[in-house]
Amino acid sequence: MVDAMWKDFFGPSMPTKSMSAKLYTVLQPGLKFSHEYDFGTTTNLSLKVVGEQEKAGQSKDIRILARNNPPDIHCFKCDKPATQVCSQCIYEGPKAWLCDQHAERHKCGEEMFLPVVNSPRVGMCGYTG
Question: What is the number of alpha carbons within 13 Å of residue 55 lying toward its C-beta?
Answer without folding.
Answer: 6
